[in-house]
Amino acid sequence: MKKHLLVIFLFPCFLSIMQGQNMNQLSTTDSIIVQEGFFGFRYYQGSERLRSSEVKDILRGNNNDAYKLWNQAMLHNGLSNVAAIVGGGMVGYGLTVGDDNSNGGTIAVIGLGLVVGSLILASSYTKKIYRSVDMYNSGLRQSAYFRSEPEIHFGFTSNGMGLIWRF
Fold first, then answer.
1. What confidence tens digit (pLDDT) does each residue in 71-92 have?
2. Where are the domains of the chain?
3. Looking at residue 149, what DSSP letter applies?
4. What strands lie across the sheet with 48-50, from one edge to the other?
């Protein structure tokens, strides 16, 4: 009879410990997932698709370093687009007018340099987008998992009273 009472008393304690462990885990709905598609990036938080402005707002509110990196990436994207358009136009103009004008070849070479520069900026944009989202997600993991030292105490849990062990 005493063994049954002991088991009945200890079973809820073990359940509360297991429940306490689940509460410390990082929810996958909080992290942001980046997918690269043909027309740019797609962002997901859980099963919900986010626009880039929504991702920017999330980063602004939660992680200042990730937000700064995001802004640098957007700046590189804008500069890359401008350089590609201007460089492509200069290459086209230089090749078209190259026979009639002695400066056509020079304009085409300068345009080609702008196109190469735009490719470098586009690569930087991609890397910075991934790094800013990874920085945000790693900040979530640290806040969810990091404990300076293990804690054990008796208190209220979602299942009632129990032994709480956090590490």
1. 999 999 999 999 999 999 999 9
2. 2-166
3. S
4. 32-37, 40-45, 48-50
